[in-house]
Amino acid sequence: MKERLQVLDSLRGLAALAVVLHHFIVVYGIKYGYGAQQYPPEWLELSIGRYGVELFFIISGFVISLTLEKGRNVTAFAISRFSRLFPTYWFCVIFTSLVLYFFREQSTINWDQFLFNLTMAPQFFWREPIDGSYWTLMYELFFYFMIAILFGKSGKITIKPLIITFIGFLFFTIFNILYPVHIKLQYISLFPHLHLFWAGIVFYKIWEYKKDVNSLNNISISTYVFIYTLMLFQWILCLFEINRVNIISSTLVSLYFLLFHLFINNKLEFLKNRILIKLGAISYSLYLIHQEVGYVIIESMYKYTHSIVISIILTTVACVLVALIINKYVETTTNRICKKQLMKLASFKGN
Hints:
This protein has 15 helices and no strands. By secondary structure, it is mainly alpha-helical. The chain has one domain. The two termini are 32 Å apart.
């Protein structure tokens, strides 16, 4: 099982690297400029690396389905997700806040913003994320809640509830286009990203069936119709230019669907590269730590190198090294300890 999922680790690693380079090359160029030059804001929409996040969402749908069914109940699922995400996230929030406080002039971070960032959903409470990358975590968090509500009781993923909720989401989208609803309702409904999470779940179910020859007949035509309906929905959103959805993101999402189709048919084995797999293993820490901390490092490097290219290369290497350290000494350790203690507590209360 773990061996076959190394392909997803590699894809996650590539997506993380794409996001890092997008922030260092394009976003930093727009926000701070390189010397006397500054990238035009339109470059933000054209940057391919920006849309590595969409691949993260699809991967999350796949992996979370596996986690839920492996845990068999909502308590185990909640403990697994909390232990995996929050301790490392809190560490990175504190680390980033300290770096910005001590090394960036006119830092605007205050206690109010800091405390709300600890919830992993500061936008929901009208606060800005301390690091720009954190915006995706709120969607991940609400996705976990939705999955727990739909499948937590049975501990088994099924397609029918996904189709029903997607139909509801489709009507919500139409209504929201005509009469924009409150932003918090959009957050809770995962608008406009729900179809990406759902695609990961459906790909997981197809992959699960394909592992068992006797279960191949369980893959109905409607399942395949549903998965490509989700891809078509991305292009429908593109027509209305909703949020991040445009021709580039929709083209890449179509490519991601193709990659997952190849993955579940064991056609991406060549991606089992040690470096990519390791990059995927540290992708969460790298994602959490790279943007604002990276900008501080780039600024410092540029003063000495006077070369933005060299500064970005050195900063990327530095962020990867920091992520490796966090992954080894914080992420892995806190995940194990937190999960162990919470499982003991859950067992004690159960008795």
